[in-house]
Amino acid sequence: MAKQIIHTDQAPKAIGTYSQAVKVGDTVYLSGQIPLVPETMELVQGDMRVQVGRVFDNLKAVAEAAGGTLADVVKLNVFLTDLTHFPLVNEVMAEYFAPPYPARAAVQVAALPKGVAVEMDGVMVLGQ
Question: pTM score > 0.90 for this model?
Answer without folding.
Answer: yes
